[in-house]
Amino acid sequence: MKAELKNIRFFYCYDKELERYLSNHGLRYITHSISVQNNLQFWQYFQTTELSRLIDAYKKLKKIEYVKN
C-alpha cells in the first residue's frame, strides 16, 4: 500500500476562479482548507490528465479574456 501512495500526486489550487472552472467542468476536489503557512484557502485535487487538460484550457481562456480587455 505504501508503494501505491508514493505514486499519487496532488495539485493545490489557490485560485477561486480556477476552482469554479474545474468544478463547473465536473472535477471535484479532495479537500478544501486554509493553509497554515500563508492563511490562504486552497482546494486539493488528485493530479490527473483530466485536471491537466482543464488547467491548460483555462489558461488559454484567460489569455483570450485578457486580450479582449
Tell me the layout of helices and strands.
Layout: H1 2-6, E1 10-13, H2 16-24, E2 31-34, E3 41-46, H3 49-68
Antiparallel strand pairs: 1-3, 2-3
Q: What's the overall average pLDDT, rounded?
A: 90
How many structural domains can be distinguished in the coordinates?
Answer: 1
What is the helix fraction of residues, given as a range?
A: 40-55%
> Which regions have little confidence, pLDDT < 50, spanning 5+ residues?
none
**How many angstroms does the end-to-end distance come to?**
50 Å
Topology as a string of helices (H) and strands (E): HEHEEH
The assembly state of the depicted protein chains is: single chain
Beta-strand level of the residues, as a percent range?
15-25%
Total of helices: 3
Strand order of the largest sheet: 1-3-2
- Overall shape: globular
| Secondary-structure-derived class | alpha+beta
- The strand count comes to 3
Largest β sheet strand count, sense and barrel closure: 3 strands, antiparallel
Work out the radius of gyration: 14 Å
